[in-house]
Amino acid sequence: MARKKSLRSELQRERECRQRVAQARERMNEETIKHNARPPTQNGRPPGRDAAERKRQEQLAHEAGTSVPLPVPVWEDFAPPPPGVLSGLVGGKARHARA
Fold first, then answer.
1. Which of 40, 55, 64, 73 has a CA 20 to 30 Å removed from the CA of 48?
2. Residue 1 has pLDDT above 60, yes or no
3. Can you spell out the DSSP letters for 3-37?
4. DSSP for residue 45
5. Stronger pLDDT, 28 or 84, i.e. the higher one
6. With contact defined as beta carbons under 8 Å apart, do 92 and 83 qualify?
7. Which pLDDT band, with edges at 50, 70 and 90, does 45 fall under?
8. Whole-angstrom Cα distance, residue 51 to residue 17?
9. pLDDT for the residue 23
């Protein structure tokens, strides 16, 4: 059976829990202050990143223009499966031909 906890241990655990919550709030407040203290940037990005991002986009566009074309689709890859023996006897062949 589980041991019954004393009132003192319950109070101590509650106090520790409140301390952890207070410390987490303090860390969150500090991070918020640091975040708000940063100089404003365009589009929320650090300065100088726009040029690098634009160059990367141009490179991707260039590579997309010189990429190898996709192969032509083959009907057999998309065709419905042939009817089985039993379904062929009850009209499955006609449904297969329509599909």
1. 64
2. no
3. PPPPHHHHHHHHHHHHHHHHHHHHHHHHHHHHHHH
4. -
5. 28
6. yes
7. low
8. 48
9. 93
The CA-to-CA distance between both ends of the chain, in Å, stands at 67
Q: Residue 76 corresponds to which tokens in the numbers above? A: 């057999």
For residues 55-77, average pLDDT: 80
CB 42 within 8 A of CB 50: yes
What pTM was estimated for this model as a whole? 0.37
- Using CA atoms, how far apart are residues 5 and 59, in angstroms rounded to an integer? 66
> Exposed e or buried b for every residue in 5-27, given b needs 16+ CB within 10 A?
eeeeeeeeeeeeeeeeeeeeeee
- Report d(CA 93, CA 74) in Å as an integer: 22
The CB-based long-range contact list for 13-22 (8 Å cut-off, 24+ gap) reads none
